[in-house]
Amino acid sequence: MTSDAVQPSRFRLVPMRPREPGEEGRAASTLELFFDLVFVIAVSIAASTLHDTVTAGHLGVGLAKYLMIFFAIWWAWMNFTWFATSFDTDDWLYRVMTIVQMGGVLILAAGIGPAFADDDFLFVILGYILMRVVMIAQWLRASRHAGGARRTTVVYACGIGIVQVLWVTWMSIDDHVLSTVVFLILVLAEVAIPVVAEARGTTPWHPEHITERYGCFTIIVLGESMLASANAVFEALSDSEDIVSLVSLGVLSLIVTAAMWWIYFWPPHHRAIGSLGGSLAYGYGHYVIFAAAGAFSAGVGIEVDSQLGVSALDPVLATFTVSVPIAVFVLGVWLLAIRPNAGGAVNTIVPICALLVLCDPIIPIPTFLTTFFMIIIVITLIVASPKGGESSTGTEVRA
């Protein structure tokens, strides 16, 4: 029985029962899409701050902080997404609690600048904890009508609560090395919660809904990258006489972004959502894919600054900031979704071309080799698809 078939209570609340994993026509709701847009604000600020930090010559520090902050963004988004596929009631309380989580995202986003500049993670942690506390309330509400999944919902709520207390303790650590070690331990604790909770009884995942949600977020992040890349090029055009190279970079960035979209949506992603292990690998692996997509826009901005001569970063490293995120994105999609559903030709050409993208800095034309190899990948996928819109398996690819 779906939540839509349940009569609301006198408080106009719908009992939060598990959704049917085989529910027909299940698609992302407007609330979920609205939720994603707020998260992309945080992704955009993180990428922009990464760009500024790396341009100033602090590549290692900038990358480390970006990955730390992106974990908070991604993990809070992912936990809500998997919860919603199982227990979304869309009543007024569910909506209000989701909007409060969105407020937590904005608080986190407000703390990204201080975190990069002064190692001040106060607002990042407060925003993150607010989002996670709301998830505790959601899991406890779900536990009342979860049936056989009740134990799982309680483990989620307790596990999240314990780790949030530890995050508050983490903020009081002054030693940089100890702080880093504890951070990594807490990350492991966070990602272990679903493993422990789902071990003896899984919540009802809806494969098509989950993969559509991941696809929607991928489109939004790629769109943000395209916007940031375009703005970087447009702003630079008024400050540089070398218009040809900037326009070329803009055109190549468009082609590469389109190729990333094409590559991501070629395979049937929903086939990866089955067993607990496969679902965890798919969900966790998207941290790399999303982080790479967000870093791509920062890389284009860094390359523009390098061409203008206003970057403290070595020009070769500046080109790597574009090629590395692209290579990581492609390899991530290949491992999670393409490799299990493709033939030998695709599974040879895609990873090889992704690695060859890293050769881009050896030539003086920024992103030219990257663009060339991305086009080769797309052509390979087209040839491998019998009817153009289908995967190499003959199954229609659903975006």
Automatic annotation (TrEMBL):
Signal sequence region: none
Any one Pfam family match given in the protein's UniProt record, by short name: LtrA
Protein name: Low temperature requirement protein LtrA
Keywords attached to this entry: Membrane, Transmembrane, Transmembrane helix
Record keyword Transmembrane helix present: yes
InterPro entries linked: Low_temperature_requirement_A (IPR010640)
Superkingdom classification of source: Bacteria
Keyword Transmembrane: yes
Parts of the chain that traverse the membrane: 33-51, 63-85, 92-115, 121-140, 152-170, 176-197, 243-264, 284-304, 316-337, 349-382
